[in-house]
Design goal:
Helix content: 55-70%
Strand order of the largest sheet: 3-4-5
Structural class: mainly alpha
Shape: globular
Number of strands: 7
Radius of gyration: 40 Å
Distance between the termini: 50 Å
Length: about 1250
């Protein structure tokens, strides 16, 4: 009987209607795989197209394939032998040939080699212990013995891999093959069909003994110098002699030796082929590894700039950095004295900006605070610490000798020295000298200044030459497959805004150096913040509330009532410090001294030092009111078309006037007149707080004009936020503001002071006092026509400055910002504090640590957190200072009432606790991983594995220089820990984030969505960087995490929802196995950052929304979605309740409010406690309608029996959980699909 493919397909679809949607080719393939014999009956079936290498072989080779493990595996899966040889009757030689050829089947070779490898590994471990033990018994130290044993076994291992033939005929290799072959043979035996464990073990043992005997024979003859044929004959003789006695207990027969010859020849042949294959693969792998190693680079790496046009701006910017470093070095010099009054005291001379008393020198010491001395007296009584032990005359001679040496090196010839010295000293002294100057005429102070000038000149020259020769750290531009490969060139600019800020723009060196400098700034800022917060933590100033011991101490110190102390503890702490109370002032001095010294070491031109210092900071609401008035003034000025002010320079002008009004007035007299006019015109519109401060300042300083008074107000308001000002750089004046204007909560004051000093000290260190380093790079880029680059650089520069929040053109209007801030805080309280965010956050390590660094490193990192040393490193790293809350609300200032409720909600829900743990775990995991990679990198010989370890360290943020060092410094480890915690836990990063995320007008639209926006590139980068070096582990981890982690997270969430609401949500999968790609995506979406968006999507689909309605809901900001819900769902529902039930309808109001709030946990609790029976019925009816729609959609897309079975199973599960809302075949059938298509068609028409 014969038929065509189409006839067979029609017949099957007639019997099985569910196969209607399965493609023809797939259906035919499934039928043929199940019934191979049917091929011959299909008239138009192309048998030739199916043939492979084995089909063209003689029958004795086909017989060998059928006998092989691979052949038997094929028989088990299809129910038929791969080759039908019923009419084939082999002779003796053909039978032996088929036995020999069976070893060449791929699966057989792998089983033999793998068996030998596993056995070799076990034997190797035992042998290593044995060798080490013997060495120890011979008085070799344990560490040396272990090392020697490992090295010996490692060399032995390499030799054994080179000899695959020996591996195949090893005892365990042949034993494993025999055992597996026996098991498959039993399964395919039509008279048995099952595995007999006893027989399988016996065959394994027989093969193991036989392989050991053969291997032993080969080894002995090799040592005796026997040839190949002699060894082969001996091995066949041994195998033939012992095989029958082992298996049957009888004497060997002639045929046994022939069979043994086939077996030994087959094994050795397969081994030889394997050895050659390994050699070829090894050579290709080595070549590929060398190519990969050339391509991979650290994110920030030293680079020599060959283009002179590109290097000019970079050199100038670099020299500006060096000058700041030199200034910092001078700021921190230690001066000592032989005068007994100052025995043991070290002084620091304050920067030149602080030296405002003619004829005197201002100095600072930790014990004496700030004081000043006459210049001449100081010069004769004090000297630098490096000149200790010298007399005054020796110090003078030493300095003169050093100067002459520097002059010769810098000026080369003696005839130039006089001229150069004259010019240099004239510049230092600030006056022109026309005659030659002798060194002895300069005096001690003059010599020091001239020596500094020459030293600086040499240092700049040396560092610049070194930079030109050896390169400078540059950002290595990362290109994206999506942006740079998939997107057409013409539309690529439309999507540039989505790139990470650091990867936007060209590969121009100026732009890449700019990114590197900003990265250094961010790291330094974070490091200073961490160190300062650690000190605050030690003082107990990071606790949410004081403990009993702290309260008792404050009660004793102040004599205040205990209840009053509990309520006002932080304010009382502030007062006690300013009074100099020895119980508190010295403790805070540790922090303020650290910040003062950090500023000096960074080159900040500090103007003074105070004992018992605490900064005076305006309360946020006072400062914000003033900012709002400055914005009004700026906007009023902006409207005037007959003036020099423009949108670009207006705010800068105002801030400059706040910094130094006298200088501003001198430089801009016309603008000051305009400013006076507009202050008068807008005075009545000012906030009452600003008016009060304005009046009090004017009363105490009647000689000041209104513009001058406004500048003082601005200076005080901008003191702690504007880069041109600050408590360290401007002398502290008493403005006469009311006491209640200033913040007295010591924790808030110090926290803000820490943030300000950390930012400003990092800014000066890396950008220069006036941000000249960045300006130089931006101007250089503009000069060469790279305007796209320069605009991006300007935007990033603004993000690193302090003026972003105070610029009316970049921030939301004050009133709008304040209202929006309150709304966003409400959203955070309800959606995060009252939702399942804490549970989702628990799974974040699974989608970050596990995917990027693996289970082993994560587990070891978790275990290491018990070690106090590791906990100290975690605390010192940068990974524990950021909180999601700042990202959730878009604002870091938590001073208002509702913002304090945000913190309370996140503390109660344990979101902050889990987030803190995740950051710590990420930092600990990164420490384990980087140390592990570094150790293995330096122990591994060149090759792909070494390259992979190198890429692993690059991925974690080490530079090439750090990787090459034999020892990993603690500073490098801390850097890696902080960076990985920051990136993996999706914290704010101005370089890694797209620029639009920092736009105040955009932030409300991405509330709760920034997590997923950051999660996607984090995972893709982890995968991309590992694939570059041939590792697919992140992909495998992603799959494993999605399957197991997503299943666990969904199950846990459903369990909690069941306990809270009393209902099974039926959202978790019923099996650990993944059905399809959609199922996998659902599970991945339940983890960590993706879970937040998944929850929003679930909320969007609720209340019977269509998919289009849900997309609209998702596209709106969270607060706008709530507003939409209020008008489209909440109010109509209330109106309907009252119409239907009258006053009784108000019983539904509490649950309606919970539904409106979006607090998922509270909503679920309300289902059990607040929801009326009628509301429950309405909700379940709506839920049933959605489920029916989902099931009909699945029926339409199903194409296999398995998909139909899964659909049926899910419907049964629904009916079991909600029997009252039964879903039957009348609800889900093909008729419903047709009706849906008709509706869609009509809709299109």
């Amino acid at each position: 009987m014969s038929f065509t493919k189409q006839e067979l397909i029609s017949k099957y679809r007639g019997q099985y209607p569910e196969l209607e949607n399965m493609p023809d080719d797939k259906l035919i393939s499934n039928i043929v795989n199940k019934y191979p014999q049917i091929k011959s009956q299909i008239s138009d079936y192309n048998l030739e197209a199916e043939k492979n290498m084995w089909d063209s072989m003689p029958n004795w080779i086909k017989s060998g394939y059928n006998k092989s493990i691979q052949g038997m595996a094929t028989e088990l899966s299809t129910g038929n032998k791969r080759f039908d040889l019923k009419n084939y009757h082999p002779g003796v030689l053909e039978d032996l040939g088929s036995e020999m050829i069976s070893f060449f089947a791929p699966a057989d070779f792998v089983v033999t080699a793998l068996g030998g490898g596993i056995g070799g590994a076990l034997a190797k471990r035992t042998a290593t212990k044995y060798v080490a033990k013997k060495l120890t018994q011979n008085r070799v130290s344990k560490s040396v013995a272990d090392k020697v044993a490992r090295e010996a076994m490692r060399k032995q291992g390499r030799e054994s891999v080179k000899s695959a033939g020996k591996l195949a005929t090893s005892g365990l290799g042949l034993g494993t093959y025999s055992g597996v072959h026996s098991a498959f043979g039993q399964l395919t035996d039509p008279e048995q069909g099952y595995i007999d464990p006893g027989k399988t073990v016996k065959d394994f043992a027989t093969g193991a003994v036989l392989g050991t005997a053969v291997n032993f024979t080969n080894s002995k003859l090799t040592k005796a110098g026997a040839g190949v044929m002699k060894k082969l004959a001996a091995e066949i003789g041994v195998a033939g002699t012992i095989q029958r006695p082992l298996t049957e207990g009888e004497l060997p027969q002639p045929m046994d030796y022939i069979t043994a010859g086939a077996m030994i020849t087959g094994l050795k042949g397969a081994g030889y082929v394997g050895t050659k294959g390994i050699d070829v693969a090894s050579k290709k792998l080595k070549k590929a590894s060398q190519n990969i190693n050339k391509k991979i680079k650290a994110e920030y790496e030293k680079e020599v700039i060959k283009n002179e046009a590109s290097s000019e701006g970079i050199v100038q910017a670099y020299q500006a950095e060096i000058k700041t470093q030199l200034s910092a070095e001078k700021n921190t010099r230690k001066w000592i004295s032989n005068n007994k009054r100052f025995s043991g005291v070290e002084f620091t001379v304050l920067p030149k900006e602080a030296q405002n008393i003619p004829g005197r020198v201002k100095v600072v010491s930790p014990t004496k605070g700030q004081t000043s001395y006459p210049q001449k007296w100081f010069a004769s009584n004090f000297f630098l610490k490096d000149q200790i032990g010298m007399t005054a005359k020796q110090r003078l001679a030493d300095r003169q000798g050093s100067i002459r040496s520097l002059e010769k090196e810098l000026f080369r010839t003696s005839d130039k020295i006089g001229k150069q010295r004259l010019e240099a000293v004239s510049g230092i002294a600030g006056q022109k000298f026309n005659t030659d100057i002798k060194l002895k005429d300069l005096g001690s102070g003059g010599l020091t200044k001239y020596h500094d000038y020459l030293s600086d000149l040499k240092y700049i020259k040396t560092k610049t030459a070194d930079m030109k020769k050896n390169g400078i750290e540059m950002h290595q531009l990362e290109r994206s497959i999506f942006f740079d490969t998939l997107l057409p060139t013409k539309i690529k600019p439309l999507f540039e805004w989505m790139r990470a800020a650091k990867n936007r723009g060209s590969a121009d060196p100026a732009r890449r150096r700019f990114i590197s400098v900003v990265n250094d700034f961010e790291r330094t800022k974070a490091k200073t913040t961490v160190n300062a917060l650690t000190i605050m933590d030690n003082l107990g100033l990071t606790l949410s509330k004081p403990n009993k011991q702290m309260i008792d101490k404050m009660v004793d110190a102040t004599g205040r009532d205990r209840k009053y102390v509990v309520k006002n503890y932080n304010e009382l702490y502030y007062d006690e410090v300013t009074k100099g109370n020895p119980l508190y002032a010295p403790q805070v001095k540790v922090l303020t001294d650290y910040l003062f010294n950090t500023s000096l070491q960074s080159g900040v031109p500090v103007v003074g030092y105070e004992l018992n210092f605490l900064p005076k900071i305006l309360k946020p609401e006072i400062r914000n009111a003033m900012f709002g008035d400055f914005a009004k003034l700026a906007q009023s000025l902006q409207k005037d078309k007959n003036k020099a002010y423009t949108k670009e320079n207006l705010v800068e002008d105002l801030v400059d006037s706040f910094a130094d009004f006298k200088k501003y007035k001198k430089d801009n007299p016309e603008r000051v007149k305009i400013l006076e006019k507009y202050i008068d015109a807008n005075y009545s519109k000012l906030n009452k707080t600003t008016k009060q401060a304005f009046r009090e300042l004017q009363q105490k300083n009647p000689e000041l004009s209104r513009a001058e008074v406004m500048s003082l107000l601005g200076r005080e308001a901008y003191r702690e936020s504007a880069s041109i000002s600050g408590h360290l750089e401007k002398s502290r004046a008493e403005f006469g503001f009311p006491k209640e204007f200033y913040e007295r909560n010591v924790k808030d004051v110090l926290s803000q002071y820490v943030a300000n000093v950390a930012r400003r000290s990092a800014e000066v260190k890396h950008f220069g006092k006036d941000r000249e380093v960045l300006e130089t790079l931006i101007n250089d880029s503009m000069k060469r026509g790279n305007f796209v680059d320069s605009n991006i650089m300007k935007e990033i520069s603004i993000l690193t400055s302090s003026r972003l929040r105070t610029d009316p053109y970049r921030d939301l209007p004050l009133g709008v910002g304040k209202a929006l801030n309150a709304i966003l805080d409400f959203e955070t309280i309800t959606k995060i504090g009252g939702g399942y965010a804490t549970l989702l956050n628990l799974s974040q390590p699974a989608i970050s640590n596990l995917i990027s660094l693996g289970l082993s490193n994560t587990a070891r990192g978790l275990n290491s957190m018990r070690d106090p040393k590791v906990r100290r490193l975690v605390n010192q790293s940068e990974g524990n200072i950021y909180r999601y809350i700042n990202e959730l609300t878009g604002y870091a200032d938590k001073s208002t009432f509702h913002q304090r409720w945000v913190q309370k909600a996140l503390d109660v829900s344990k979101f902050n606790t889990v987030n803190d743990f995740n950051n710590r775990l990420a930092a600990a995991t990164a420490r384990v991983a980087v140390e592990n990679f570094h150790k293995k990198y330096h122990r591994t010989k060149p090759g792909l594995r070494k390259t992979q370890f190198k890429q692993g360290m690059f991925k974690l943020g080490l530079t090439s220089e750090e990787v090459s060092k034999k020892t990993l410094s603690e500073e490098s480890v801390l850097k890696v820990m902080g960076q990985f915690a920051k990136d993996s836990q999706l914290q704010k990063n101005i370089l890694s984030d797209p620029l639009f995320l920092n736009n105040p007008y955009v932030r409300p639209f991405v509330q709760f969505r920034t997590f997923a926006i950051r999660q996607v590139p984090f995972i893709s980068n982890a995968i991309k960087k590992d694939i570059q070096v041939g590792s697919v582990m992140p992909i495998l981890r992603l799959v494993g995490t999605g399957v197991i982690g997503g299943y666990s997270a969904q199950k846990a969430k459903d369990y909690i929802r069941l306990r809270l609401s009393g209902e099974d949500p039926l959202t978790a999968p019923d099996s650990l196995m993944v059905r399809d790609l959609n199922d996998f995506a659902d599970r991945l979406g339940a983890l960590g950052a993706f879970g937040y968006v998944s929850d929003l999507w679930a909320a969007a689909l609720s209340e019977e929304r269509s998919v289009l309605g849900a997309l609209t809901f998702m596209g709106l900001p969270a607060f706008a979605s709530d507003i939409d819900l209020f008008f489209t769902r909440f109010l109509p529902s209330i109106e309907s309740d009252i119409e239907k039930f009258g006053a009784a309808g108000l019983r539904r109001l509490p649950q309606r409010i919970l539904d409106l709030s979006g607090a998922a946990v509270l909503k679920d609790i309300g289902k059990r406690t607040l929801e009326t029976e009628g509301m429950k019925l309405d909700r379940l009816k709506a839920l049933r309608n959605r489920k029916v729609s989902v099931f009909v959609n699945r029926l339409e897309k199903a194409s296999t029996q398995e998909e139909y079975d899964n659909l049926s199973k899910d419907i049964k599960e629904w009916n079991k959980t909600y029997p009252r809302w039964f879903i039957s075949g009348k609800d889900v059938n093909f008729k419903k699909i047709i009706q849906r298509k008709i509706r869609k068609y009509k809709s299109k028409l």
